[in-house]
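Hi support team,

I've been running sequence recovery on a batch of backbones for a student project. Most finish fine, but this one hangs at about 90% for roughly twenty minutes before it completes. I'm not sure whether the input is malformed or the queue is just slow. I've pasted the structure tokens below so you can try to reproduce it. Let me know if you need the job ID as well.

Thanks,
M.K.
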């Protein structure tokens, strides 16, 4: 593999001594350790998978970890989320990551107490060399995967329920000669139904440590360029039978030529007359004001089920703050047969015209 990260010039003396056993590995060596020290990894979720990831990557000497989670520690987390303690119950999960990592190495932790949305995910992940998804809902996983495809960074992906788990790597822009594989190749959107939560079916805590460790190893291999990654392969783990098997993932794009998405039109304020206006901003945004008569449906809800937002025919004009979210929503509506357009300039332009008229 081609190393993902250029190395720093030198390790500190303490890090050189601390990671001496890594340096003895001929595939990794001191050069690989310097690549790890230069790396910036974003971890989505500080729960069952994120906890061992923080421990493993900080211990490995990764330079920067951005840990993203908006949740607080609950006592029922503690059987599997091993960076948290009884005294952390009620505290933000990212605070545990910020406490634990510096106790292990010189790793810098950027705690990001944030609920990811389609509007902020790419920005939250921007700057990371690699992303690891340890979240626990498919909606979040889809947003993270989409952002990684947009940014062109590799995504280490793992999931666990009960005694079963999967680990793989997605990458929309791998090195030349390597076929890209993305989340939709493994789980086409139409194939994903309502998935049970860990609260409903349970989860074996010890398996979280195994899966998190495997995900950390994939990240280390990608950063340093050693070994063979799981890109194009899914590792399937059966914890009850103590078996692991491998499945190949064939890029769906190889089966048929790509089809260009329909072009989304931008329209002016005059087009609002007689059209259904759909506002896809977040609730806190629409609380500050909406276009009269507009319907509110947050972008994430629309993307999860575009057909339910199709309306009863006629033109739909989608609006957000400035335009990007509206374009994503309109494209999804067009894909299910809706005549959808975007209000040019979004609410900022609409508000500016109102203020100009009052001046």
């Amino acid at each position: 593999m081609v190393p993902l990260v250029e190395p720093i010039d030198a390790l500190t003396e303490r890090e050189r001594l601390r990671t001496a056993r890594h340096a003895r590995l001929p595939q990794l060596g001191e050069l690989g350790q310097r690549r790890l020290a230069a790396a910036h990894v974003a971890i989505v979720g500080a729960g069952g998978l994120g906890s061992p990831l923080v421990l493993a990557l900080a211990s490995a000497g990764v330079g920067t970890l951005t840990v993203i989670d908006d949740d607080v520690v609950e006592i029922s987390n503690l059987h599997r989320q091993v960076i948290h303690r009884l005294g952390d119950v009620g505290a933000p999960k990212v605070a545990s990551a910020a406490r634990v990592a510096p106790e292990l190495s010189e790793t810098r932790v950027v705690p990001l107490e944030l609920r990811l949305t389609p509007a902020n995910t790419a920005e939250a992940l921007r700057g990371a060399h690699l992303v690891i998804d340890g979240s626990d809902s498919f909606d979040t996983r889809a947003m993270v995967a989409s952002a990684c495809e947009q940014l062109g960074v590799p995504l280490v992906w793992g999931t666990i329920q009960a005694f079963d788990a999967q680990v793989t790597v997605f990458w929309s822009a791998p090195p030349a000669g390597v076929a890209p594989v993305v989340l939709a190749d493994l789980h086409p959107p139409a194939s994903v139904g309502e998935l049970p939560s860990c609260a409903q079916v349970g989860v074996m805590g010890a398996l979280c440590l195994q899966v998190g460790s495997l995900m950390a190893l994939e990240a280390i291999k990608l950063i340093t360029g050693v070994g063979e990654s799981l890109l194009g392969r899914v590792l399937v783990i059966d914890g009850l039978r103590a078996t692991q098997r491998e499945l190949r993932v064939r890029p769906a794009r190889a089966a048929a030529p790509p089809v260009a998405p329909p072009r989304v039109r931008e329209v002016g304020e005059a087009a609002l007359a007689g059209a259904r206006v759909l506002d896809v901003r977040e609730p806190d945004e629409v609380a500050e004001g909406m276009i009269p008569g507009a319907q509110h449906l947050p972008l994430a809800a629309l993307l999860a089920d575009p057909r339910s937002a199709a309306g009863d025919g006629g033109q739909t004009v989608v609006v957000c703050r400035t335009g990007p979210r509206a374009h994503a929503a309109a494209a999804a509506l067009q894909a299910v047969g809706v005549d959808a357009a975007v209000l040019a300039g979004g609410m900022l332009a609409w508000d500016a015209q109102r203020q100009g008229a009052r001046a």
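--
Follow-up from support: It reproduced on our side and the slowdown came from queue contention, not your input. The two ends are 62 Å apart (CA to CA). No action needed from you.
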